[in-house]
What we know:
The structure holds two protein chains of two kinds.
Chain A: H1 3-12, H2 25-44, H3 46-50, H4 59-84, H5 90-98, H6 116-136, H7 142-170, H8 174-193, H9 205-210, H10 218-235, E1 246-248, E2 253-255, H11 261-271, H12 275-288, H13 290-311
Antiparallel strand pairs in A: 1-2
Helix pairs in contact in A: 2-4, 4-7, 6-7, 6-8, 6-10
Chain B: H1 21-27, E1 38-44, E2 51-58, H2 62-73, E3 81-86, H3 98-102
Antiparallel strand pairs in B: 1-2, 1-3
Amino acid sequence: xxxxxxxxxxxxxxxxxxxxxxxxxxxxxxxxxxxxxxxxxxxxxxxxxxxxxxxxxxxxxxxxxxxxxxxxxxxxxxxxxxxxxxxxxxxxxxxxxxxxxxxxxxxxxxxxxxxxxxxxxxxxxxxxxxxxxxxxxxxxxxxxxxxxxxxxxxxxxxxxxxxxxxxxxxxxxxxxxxxxxxxxxxxxxxxxxxxxxxxxxxxxxxxxxxxxxxxxxxxxxxxxxxxxxxxxxxxxxxxxxxxxxxxxxxxxxxxxxxxxxxxxxxxxxxxxxxxxxxxxxxxxxxxxxxxxxxxxxxxxxxxxxxxxxxxx
Amino acid sequence: xxxxxxxxxxxxxxxxxxxxxxxxxxxxxxxxxxxxxxxxxxxxxxxxxxxxxxxxxxxxxxxxxxxxxxxxxxxxxxxxxxxxxxxxxxxxxxxxxxxxxxxxxxxxxxxxxxxxxxxxxxxxx
Lengths: 312, 125
């Protein structure tokens, strides 16, 4: 058996691949890109929600939102660490984000216009993320799978707090109900796009299914999400903005309308409502933090030098 | 450089900038080795248990590594004690040596109690 066959055998036998094991170069590159882009999504994802921390309507909601945004930072870190085991440095990954070489989930290029958006993000965006992430807990690369186990454990509170927030609004005044419906209307379609292009536009899915990086196709997960949300929205007494959404008894799934892929590719390509704003925020944070990073290094060196002198 | 175009969650393939990216990355200020060192984090989840590897992070020194580990790995009472060690100090066995290292243990079933057949009459053993 050659190295590649041996590798595939391990994957087929559900033996996890660890960083020092031999792996095909393409497997490594695929994972580096997927994991780093996932990490970038967690970090950029803090921005739309951070926008509402100072304006949360109560101390309870504010504490929850801070905890959630802090979780996202943690998720980013778990994932960056997993990617680093594949031989890319943290700074290289930041650089890819800042120069636009690496992407992040396009959902975060939409603005958070009202407080209800925080609920819609938790319910729909985190809900979609969870469906993507649960199968990733069993992905073939050990460090990625372990990171995802942590992420999934923490993520379920994110979705529940979002639903609870919307539920509260949905039982409130007319204005609050309207705000709730409006947020659902704006976030529904972008959430469906989070699962990525249709399977027939995703030619390499087969390879990553074979490598067990991926366990379900984009369309399978999207359908699962729609079936789930179409039921949950009834509890909110709200509707989803899709006239074609209808239970199909034969398929045992909901049918749904056409997704605007033109919009999706526009946003991916940098022309979404907030692309520039999001990237600028990251670049500025990195540039403005430079003196802090340097100062901490200088302090650590000074302390070390002192220790060495004292010991001598 | 391999160009792969495929789509996963949070992954939309490489951008069109890619062809010129070689020049861009070389002129970028980052990646010049100014990174804070990498640390491995070990957490004791409760008194009486071992410290277990939890993950890794970057920090300028040990104090900062412990503070960051607290924020990152114990937000939900996952730990009551933290060890950090700079990753460069970890020495690991090579997976290629796995056969030589662990195979000799495979054929020594007599190291396990179940290897021995005793009559049922023998109690408490």
